[in-house]
Amino acid sequence: MTGLGPLVRLALRRDRLLLAAWVVALVGITLATTSAVGELYGTAESRVRLGATAGVNPAFLALLGPLHDASTAGGVLAWRWGVFGALLVALMSAFLVTRHTRAEEEAGRLELVGSAVVGRHAPLAAAVVTAVLVNALVGGLIAVGLVGLGERAAGSFAFGAGFAAVGLVFAGVGAVAAQLPESARAANSAAGAVLGLSYLLRAVGDAAGDRGPTWLTWCSPLGWFEHTRPFAGDRWWVLAVPLGVTALLVATAAVLVTRRDTGGGLVPARLGPAHAPRSLSSAFGLAWRLQRGVLLGWALGLFVLGAVYGAVARGVEEMLADNPAMRQVIGRLGGSGGIVDVYLASILGIVALFGSGFAVQAVLRLRAEESASRAEPVLATAVRRSAWVGGHVLLAVVGSAAVLAAAGLGAGLVHGLRVGDVGGQVARLVGASLAHVPAVWVVAGLALALFGLVPRLATASWAVLVAFLVLGQLGPLLELDPWAMDLSPFTHVPKVPGAEVTAAPLLWLALVAAGLVAVGFAGFRRRDVG
């Protein structure tokens, strides 16, 4: 552990702006949501009515989790924001650990640090300690802020501790993932896959009902947050589960780090064939070879997620039959068509935001290739810059449409089987999913523009995507001004199925995306590689 203290200070110094942004965003959104919930459900009657419907319906259980106690604004907050807030805390923690471990090794900086008087475990321990400090700060500020807004102290601290506990688990996940592959990108993908599986297990377990596999929520760190039940019993003993798992994961990472070489991974990269196929003679062929596994993983994941949400679509109509207040809430989220279509439009909007993650990841592969000095040997040949960038951009454009179509296919197949109209529902929901493609292209264009103009800030594309997610999920609840909601390209997508499809907003989104892509191309042509 020699050198642990200086490495922790170095990590905090390097990430002071990034971590401050995460902390301010997570705490601010939580407190703003609390105030909005207090205004929207200001009476006990309105909260009881909400709990009698949303807390037992499979559709809402899959989307947001159980509403354990609707008697207080804090209980509604834990239902409305708990899962998505914990999701963001998990992303922050996992990426933070991989950034200060595997990414440092890949860049060669950790080898230089390790040549000084630094212990073998110190870099890993410093990354974990930094994550612990940041999660403790987020949880503590949220708890204090909720108390300041008038919520019960016990529930407030249980809520903050639950967020911090989820963050610690995924700090451990990031620590283990950093030991397996040889690249930071692959480590982040592995941690993201674990997070996606956790969300899926929670959704299936929550929506299963009394006779279904509700035990699946105990297999998910997001489910552990729900079982803590902030403002609804405050089951502190549940926190022992994530803390124990965190200790086990960190201990596993500490053992693994001594069983590999610095810069290497426990899962070595496979040797390629002696002769390259003809497909690698083009820039797109190279991009496809590098990212085909990622594309397949995203398509499969969104297909399963769409299927889960499609399975509970019919339950929405039953829940809202006698509840006009909930009809109004769902309508604000999804549109003005039939209530099942409104629900489907809402969940397809969320799935489209998740699918934007593939587009960002595909574009940022350009930055990863450049940072690892693999771009220069390619560009030293007859390959032009525009062709090299264009290959990855084309994959992001086509691949994003493919992963959204997979989500619509999953939702359409399952929902169609339940209503006896597989062909019609598949066509409708695949088309509804593809309506979000221009908005996804705007996100990809933003990532490319950052890569071309200010490559050091290219990873800020993830922050932009998170901002769009928050605007989409909490904008109606917070009653934000129209101009603020319009900042998200997904606001301009027709709420299909259920709403009339107009070509104008989709064409404008496509033009904005094309302009951003042009800016990215021009910026990359005018700057030095590396």
From TrEMBL:
<feature type="transmembrane region" description="Helical">
    <location>
        <begin position="506"/>
        <end position="524"/>
    </location>
</feature>
<feature type="transmembrane region" description="Helical">
    <location>
        <begin position="236"/>
        <end position="257"/>
    </location>
</feature>
<keyword id="KW-1133">Transmembrane helix</keyword>
<feature type="transmembrane region" description="Helical">
    <location>
        <begin position="434"/>
        <end position="453"/>
    </location>
</feature>
<feature type="transmembrane region" description="Helical">
    <location>
        <begin position="294"/>
        <end position="312"/>
    </location>
</feature>
<keyword id="KW-0812">Transmembrane</keyword>
<feature type="transmembrane region" description="Helical">
    <location>
        <begin position="124"/>
        <end position="149"/>
    </location>
</feature>
<feature type="transmembrane region" description="Helical">
    <location>
        <begin position="393"/>
        <end position="414"/>
    </location>
</feature>
<keyword id="KW-0472">Membrane</keyword>
<feature type="transmembrane region" description="Helical">
    <location>
        <begin position="460"/>
        <end position="478"/>
    </location>
</feature>
<feature type="transmembrane region" description="Helical">
    <location>
        <begin position="156"/>
        <end position="178"/>
    </location>
</feature>
<feature type="transmembrane region" description="Helical">
    <location>
        <begin position="77"/>
        <end position="97"/>
    </location>
</feature>
<protein>
    <submittedName>
        <fullName>ABC transporter permease</fullName>
    </submittedName>
</protein>
<feature type="transmembrane region" description="Helical">
    <location>
        <begin position="342"/>
        <end position="364"/>
    </location>
</feature>
